[in-house]
């Protein structure tokens, strides 16, 4: 048996090689066995990267890129049993052929806690393309000398470099304009939005470049005050608070500090506009965006500091520092700039040159994300173009431990849009500014002022209808408390919502429609089905009061029919008063009902008050003092009823006051038209007759309504009470009780109403009789053609309409209402064509249709036609004169008959 012997590796020795040059040598070995065994060459672990050796031939190869000394172990192994080996460890020195720079990085970090850091930003429009206008034709202008608010359909403004940290809470924001003109007045209302984008681009002149941009769900309405004084930038030129708009943009997932924000102003209503200075006119007076913000309290912040050193021996060029921040934090800022940039959570710094012995300091600010605890590890690296003799210091790591802290309560932030709001507008309360530094908000609790009903007090964004106010600038204060997922509640935060008194802008009919909307919205909060029914009926009553036959225009009642509109509202108020009387709803609900009653009563009181004032001003000769005093007495009685809480009877008295004066005004307007009423005595006599007839009719109508409503309500109450008591008492007892109560209540109400009507029997005025008088004297309008008839036009000539005039005894000049039909005229074809003229007065009484003949003739026929026309005209004039004489005679005879009839009628009345 032969023992295996160890192979022998020939000596290699230490090696030296230039940087970036390939080093090669061949290892050899011998083996004593015969025949020789197979030998295998290899490198032990720890060889520099890139170093290799051929296992069969023993050829070694390595191209170093870093200067320094490196150790390599070369080993040879045979294939005997057992296998045996030999080895040698050599040192390889890499020599530099160029510059060397030992750049190093040291990273440190500091954990701090913010106690509610605040910030203020003021940024103006900075370029000509960052303010623009879009007109009704969707054309966009980028170089306007001013910004026309409420004249152009849209105005856009872009503000750049908004340095607001992600997660910040906006506490105040507005846009400040500067006036271009010396005086801009009149009603102008706009709506303000923010562009719903992470980083809006500048405007272009492409069509719809403003209106097509996405906008925030939040918006703010602005009734712009009058602008007085050129170059003024004060409170009237400052928008309302747009905090909710800015907060919605900053809360976007893609928002980064330094992004841009675009504000869009949309035309709303009003015929006036406001001209603000644009960037093109004066960059120093261009629109300015003002924002105030705060970082939520108890917010953890880590400030990282990187120290970059060049230890030489040569200068380092193209020095790159890279730091990818860990996911537990959110990068906020980095300096210095522009050498360093922050993109998301990636920090990159590029220094073109760093001399030997010099250094650079980099500061990175981060926010620790909510709910994070434990170790946060962050590693940064540095590199340069030169060879680094000590690459081990090219990387640095900093670990910071975040202790798990006790739950912090959330922070409530309440806002509203629109704010201020017009009466009758739906207002949305917002909680979007609320935050929780270490958790999630899971519930909301809103508190509203007395009389205001929210759609849902536990919703994040409930709504309510802005009530009518009696004085401008009334303010409603709402409170919000939020609770997080660990049960901690915030301190209350309040928002004040201003209510604009727009009664001077709203028509009376619009105010009534707002009341209808308020009642409809209120139904969902009713607890009793009977309340819902009464609200439905009250809504129908107010709707009936809007019947167009009762109105002249949206603010003026028709003197002939207007009393019926007031009477419908009296019925509505009586139903609402019964809701309060039954007391089956919450206190806030009943307060809201009372507010609506006050609104309706105020409208009708104002009608009566204005009518009396107008009558008193017109009564210069004192002929109607007695009648006006009757109206005043009724008005004052209505005030007394209001003080006693009898609002239905108050409206009834206002109705009487208004009606008396309305009849007076109608009869007074007929002085110049009806000879029977030329004396005050006759007029007063007719009024007394109308008052007497009206009292009878009104008494009957009120009695019927009282009986019907009393019976209806008693039946409802009886049914409801019967249902409630049926579990305790027998059906028979309930029936008897209901019947008794219904009879008694109906009797009492009818008796009371009847008694009241008897007391004022001589004061009320009905318009039915007066309608008969008016209809009897209404005359049809008369149309008179302008120019010649027939109208002669040469073949292929231009047709020009000569028009006509129309007058009406009651309505005056109504020429503008004439309907002309000239579609048949064709000047390209010889012949006669007919043009018709028609018109009707305000009572739809038509005038006699007038016809003009249009003759299209050859040039040669003009002389003949004109001669014939002259003859026709002369004959027509004779006929007209003769007819006029006949008509005058006939009219005189009829007037004599009318005088006889009137005299006879007057005598009959006296009898």
From TrEMBL:
<dbReference type="InterPro" id="IPR035986">
    <property type="entry name" value="PKD_dom_sf"/>
</dbReference>
<feature type="compositionally biased region" description="Acidic residues">
    <location>
        <begin position="689"/>
        <end position="764"/>
    </location>
</feature>
<feature type="region of interest" description="Disordered">
    <location>
        <begin position="865"/>
        <end position="911"/>
    </location>
</feature>
<dbReference type="InterPro" id="IPR013783">
    <property type="entry name" value="Ig-like_fold"/>
</dbReference>
<feature type="domain" description="Pesticidal crystal protein Cry22Aa Ig-like">
    <location>
        <begin position="783"/>
        <end position="856"/>
    </location>
</feature>
<dbReference type="Pfam" id="PF01345">
    <property type="entry name" value="DUF11"/>
</dbReference>
<dbReference type="InterPro" id="IPR001434">
    <property type="entry name" value="OmcB-like_DUF11"/>
</dbReference>
<dbReference type="Pfam" id="PF05345">
    <property type="entry name" value="He_PIG"/>
</dbReference>
<feature type="domain" description="DUF11">
    <location>
        <begin position="296"/>
        <end position="399"/>
    </location>
</feature>
<dbReference type="InterPro" id="IPR047589">
    <property type="entry name" value="DUF11_rpt"/>
</dbReference>
<dbReference type="InterPro" id="IPR015919">
    <property type="entry name" value="Cadherin-like_sf"/>
</dbReference>
<dbReference type="Pfam" id="PF16403">
    <property type="entry name" value="Bact_surface_Ig-like"/>
</dbReference>
<protein>
    <recommendedName>
        <fullName>Cadherin domain-containing protein</fullName>
    </recommendedName>
</protein>
<feature type="region of interest" description="Disordered">
    <location>
        <begin position="689"/>
        <end position="772"/>
    </location>
</feature>
<feature type="region of interest" description="Disordered">
    <location>
        <begin position="381"/>
        <end position="420"/>
    </location>
</feature>
<dbReference type="Pfam" id="PF22352">
    <property type="entry name" value="K319L-like_PKD"/>
</dbReference>
<dbReference type="GO" id="GO:0005509">
    <property type="term" value="F:calcium ion binding"/>
</dbReference>
<feature type="compositionally biased region" description="Polar residues">
    <location>
        <begin position="381"/>
        <end position="418"/>
    </location>
</feature>
<dbReference type="GO" id="GO:0016020">
    <property type="term" value="C:membrane"/>
</dbReference>
<dbReference type="InterPro" id="IPR032179">
    <property type="entry name" value="Cry22Aa_Ig-like"/>
</dbReference>
């Amino acid at each position: 048996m032969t023992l295996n012997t160890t192979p022998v590796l020939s000596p290699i020795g230490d090696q030296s090689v230039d940087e970036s040059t390939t080093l090669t040598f061949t290892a050899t070995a011998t083996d004593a066995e015969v025949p020789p065994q197979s030998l295998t060459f290899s490198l032990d672990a720890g060889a520099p990267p890139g170093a290799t050796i051929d296992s069969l031939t023993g050829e070694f190869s390595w191209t170093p890129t870093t200067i320094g000394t490196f150790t390599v172990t070369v080993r040879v192994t045979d294939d005997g049993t057992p296998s045996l080996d030999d080895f040698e460890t050599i040192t390889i020195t890499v020599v530099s052929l160029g510059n060397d720079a030992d750049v190093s990085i040291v990273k440190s970090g500091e954990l701090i806690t913010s106690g509610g850091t605040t910030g203020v930003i003021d940024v103006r429009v900075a370029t000509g393309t960052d303010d623009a206008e879009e007109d009704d034709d969707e054309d966009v202008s980028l170089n306007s000398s001013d910004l026309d608010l409420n004249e152009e359909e849209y105005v856009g403004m872009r503000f750049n470099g908004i340095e607001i940290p992600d997660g910040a809470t906006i506490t105040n924001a507005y846009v400040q304009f500067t006036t271009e003109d010396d005086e801009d007045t009149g009603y102008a209302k706009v709506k303000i939005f923010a562009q719903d984008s992470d980083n809006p681009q500048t405007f272009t002149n492409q069509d719809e470049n403003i209106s097509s941009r996405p906008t925030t769900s939040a918006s703010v309405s602005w009734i712009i005050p009058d602008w007085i004084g050129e170059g003024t930038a004060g409170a009237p030129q400052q928008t309302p608070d747009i905090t909710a708009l800015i907060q919605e943009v900053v809360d976007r997932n893609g928002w980064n500090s330094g992004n841009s924000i675009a504000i869009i102003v949309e035309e709303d209503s009003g015929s006036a506009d406001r001209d603000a200075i644009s960037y093109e006119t004066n960059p120093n007076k261009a629109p300015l965006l003002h924002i105030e913000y705060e970082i939520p309290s108890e917010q953890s912040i880590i400030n990282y500091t990187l120290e970059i050193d060049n230890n030489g021996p040569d200068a380092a060029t193209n020095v790159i520092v890279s730091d990818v921040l860990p996911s537990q934090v959110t990068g906020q800022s980095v300096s210095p700039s522009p050498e360093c940039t922050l993109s998301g959570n990636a920090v990159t710094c590029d220094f073109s040159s760093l001399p030997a012995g010099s250094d650079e300091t980099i500061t990175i600010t981060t926010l620790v994300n909510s709910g994070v605890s434990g170790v946060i590890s962050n590693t940064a690296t540095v590199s340069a173009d030169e060879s680094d003799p000590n690459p081990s210091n090219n990387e640095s790591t900093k670990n910071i431990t975040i202790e798990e802290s006790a739950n912090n309560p959330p922070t409530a932030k309440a806002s509203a849009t629109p704010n201020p709001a017009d009466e009758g507008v739906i207002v949305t309360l917002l909680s979007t500014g609320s935050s929780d530094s270490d958790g999630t908000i899971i519930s909301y609790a809103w508190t509203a002022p007395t009389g205001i009903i929210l759609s849902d007090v536990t919703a994040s964004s409930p709504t309510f209808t802005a009530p009518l106010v009696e004085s401008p600038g009334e303010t409603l204060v709402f409170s919000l408390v939020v609770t997080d997922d660990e049960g901690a509640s915030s301190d209350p935060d309040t928002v004040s919502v201003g209510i604009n008194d727009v009664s001077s802008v709203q028509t009376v009919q619009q105010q009534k429609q707002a009341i209808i909307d308020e009642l409809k919205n209120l139904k969902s909060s009713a607890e009793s089905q009977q309340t819902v029914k009464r609200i439905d009926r009250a809504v129908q009553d107010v709707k009936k009061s809007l019947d167009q036959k009762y109105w002249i225009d949206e603010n003026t009642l028709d003197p002939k029919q207007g009393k019926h509109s007031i009477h419908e509202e009296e019925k509505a108020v009586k139903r609402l008063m019964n809701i309060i009387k039954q007391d089956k709803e919450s206190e806030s609900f009943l307060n809201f009902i009372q507010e609506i009653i006050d609104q309706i009563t105020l409208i009708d009181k104002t009608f009566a008050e204005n009518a009396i004032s107008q009558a008193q001003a017109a009564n210069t000769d004192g002929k109607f003092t007695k009648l006006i005093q009757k109206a005043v007495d009724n008005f004052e009685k209505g005030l007394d009823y209001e003080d006693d809480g009898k609002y239905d009877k108050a409206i009834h008295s206002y109705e009487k006051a208004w009606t008396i004066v309305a009849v007076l005004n109608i009869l007074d307007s007929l002085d110049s038209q009806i000879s029977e009423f030329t004396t005050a005595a006759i007029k007063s006599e007719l009024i007394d007759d109308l008052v007497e007839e009206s009292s009878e009719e009104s008494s009957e109508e009120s009695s019927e309504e009282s009986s019907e409503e009393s019976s209806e309500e008693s039946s409802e109450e009886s049914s409801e009470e019967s249902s409630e008591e049926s579990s305790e008492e027998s059906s028979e007892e309930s029936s008897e009780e209901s019947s008794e109560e219904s009879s008694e209540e109906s009797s009492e109400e009818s008796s009371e109403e009847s008694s009241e009507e008897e007391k004022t029997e001589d004061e009320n005025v009905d318009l039915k009789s007066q309608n008969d008088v008016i209809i009897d004297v209404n005359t049809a309008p008369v149309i008179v053609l302008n120019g010649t008839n027939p109208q002669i036009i040469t073949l292929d000539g231009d047709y020009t309409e000569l028009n006509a005039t129309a007058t009406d005894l009651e309505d005056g000049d109504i020429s503008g209402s004439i309907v002309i039909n000239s579609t048949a005229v064709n000047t390209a074809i010889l012949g006669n064509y007919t043009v018709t003229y028609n018109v009707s007065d305000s009572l739809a009484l038509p005038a006699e249709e007038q016809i003009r003949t249009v003759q299209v003739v050859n040039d040669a026929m003009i002389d003949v036609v004109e001669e014939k026309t002259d003859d026709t005209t002369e004959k027509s004039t004779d006929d007209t004169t003769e007819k006029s004489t006949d008509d005058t005679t006939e009219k005189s005879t009829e007037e004599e008959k009318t005088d006889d009839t009137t005299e006879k009628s007057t005598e009959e009345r006296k009898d």
